[in-house]
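Appendix B.2, paired examples.
Example (i):
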Amino acid sequence: MSADLDPRQPVESLGSVETPRPPVLFACGKETWKEVAFLLSNLFTALAGFVYAVVSVTLGVGLAVTVIGLPLLALGLCGARFIGKSERMRARALLGTRIAEPSPLPSRGGFFGWLWSTLKDPVAWRTQLYGLIRLPWGILTFVLTLVSLFVLWPVLPFLTRVLSYGDQVMVHGLLSPSDELERRIAELESDRGVVVDTAAADLRRIERDLHDGAQARLVALAMGLGLAKEKLLADPEAAAAMVDEAHGEVKLALQELRDLARGIHPAVLTDRGLSAALSSVAARCTVPVKVEVDLAERPAEAIEGIAYFTVSELLQNVSKHARARSASVEVWRVGDRLMLQVADDGAGGARFDGGTGLAGLAERLGAVDGLLVLDSPEGGPTTVTAELPWRSRPTSGPVR
């Protein structure tokens, strides 16, 4: 061997030059280094989550006998939601684990409504549990990853993959929504409040209409008949005139009661179905309305009633606000959905916040898993499409 050759220098072999290979440690892929970053940060996030969970729960439960205990516990649970969100973001950024965000807490009226909703929030409680059980795991993953970096680096990619998979399991199990059921429960709880408020408003309207309308007329009728009875012998002509007036009041009272009954549930809807009932509503509109109902069978009574009152309210908007020359109503079924569409050739520009009652109508439809879609550009035309769930009657009859 020549003295000029240095064993540390590259040597020629078969006409090529062999260069030293880089250490395996620096040949790891980007995903591996992201997993390493996640596992090394586990110690600090697990420690912070453990301390937060222990302090917030212990403090809230310990002071539950006082005025501030439950509010403190609720505030701790609100903070836990933010911790869960940050952990989902960390898992998404470093592990590529994409988890849907849980539904927000349903809005409740007043302080006590917020307190009750927060205290029974399953998302926050699972996040607190996540913080309690992750401390031992965070310590273990930190130590193993650190040792692998400097001692066991040939197995680093395999070890980080196994350890990060354990983290993904915990994130999925404790920080993801409880499948779609939890989301639907939150939506239904919110919708229940809308239904209760709507029912209460309808009862107040009926009470007001009875008190100010038919009841007042009946009271006046009783008084008029009493005076006529007194004048019957002394002044028969005046008594007869008073009886004629009372007869007119009876007719008006009966008409008001019929209108009130129609507003609750019209007889024509019960007896003859949507086609006849909507034709009756269309006849009272201030513009010509074309009605087309294409249904092979009648839906459930509740759905049929909602469809009737939805079209009634939309046609009232056409009469009051649209400045239209004509309108149309179409009803048909698509799969398990009942479709309604009311269109007019008016000025357009309708909005959900425009004071036409469309926002309230959309809320009432949403409470029964329905949907309201508005298309009303400035200058018209306006088309409002509603969807309702189709529910068949126990004994369906033909549409008449």
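Example (ii):
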Amino acid sequence: MSNSSATPLVEMKDISIAFGGIKAVDSVSIDLHPGEVVGLLGHNGAGKSTLIKILSGAYRPDSGEICINGADAQIHHPSDAKKYGIETIYQTLALADNVDAAANVFLGREILTRWGTLDDGAMEAQTRKVMARLNPHFYRFKEPVRALSGGQRQSVAIARAIHFDARILIMDEPTAALGPAETKQVSDLVLQLKNEGIGIFLISHDIHDVFDLADRLYVMKNGRVVGSARVADVTKDEVLGMIILGKCPSGAIPGPGAAR
């Protein structure tokens, strides 16, 4: 669980970006602490995915600043984000379906032998080690990932992120199209990551997901923050009111995008 008095893992301050004169993100400030899950909610076009793409290095903001562990961070490219321990797990998972878990964990960062060939043994051994910590019930190391269930595929994507020392994880709709058992599996993975002190931004359209997994939430509308709240301090109906009407309830902290 996070300590709100500690230095945040991530602070995004007054972030703005416009496309064709339209502000997709307008003076947005959010933060994330170690061992905390923060939900980002809002309709399509609210700005949440654009905001997170700025943190992941896919977009450069027009203004604002990002701090990692209290220090100014220069994130101009996805490789910069990785250097700061930021990894993104997109809804599509970006897995190579025709190869196994180890090949996916080390995709683009393969271990080579002294002769310059792929060291499959070393990659599988390290994948087994990280998976034992993350999902000890995962045994299908030799099969192409196309044969895995949705929850198992999420395990592989998360293993790839944390093997390379991610401290900040961005999860985009992690339970979309999963059944109840697989959703439970992903929820267990998220709780395991929290216990290890990893901070998670959870982007979701599903209020139930956020209430099940998040400690705090931010709601965005028209590129601005409507408000933020501890999940324990608001109801699902109140959060729906924030998403649809921009109305900030008494249990939330109003943002600049709140309806007046």
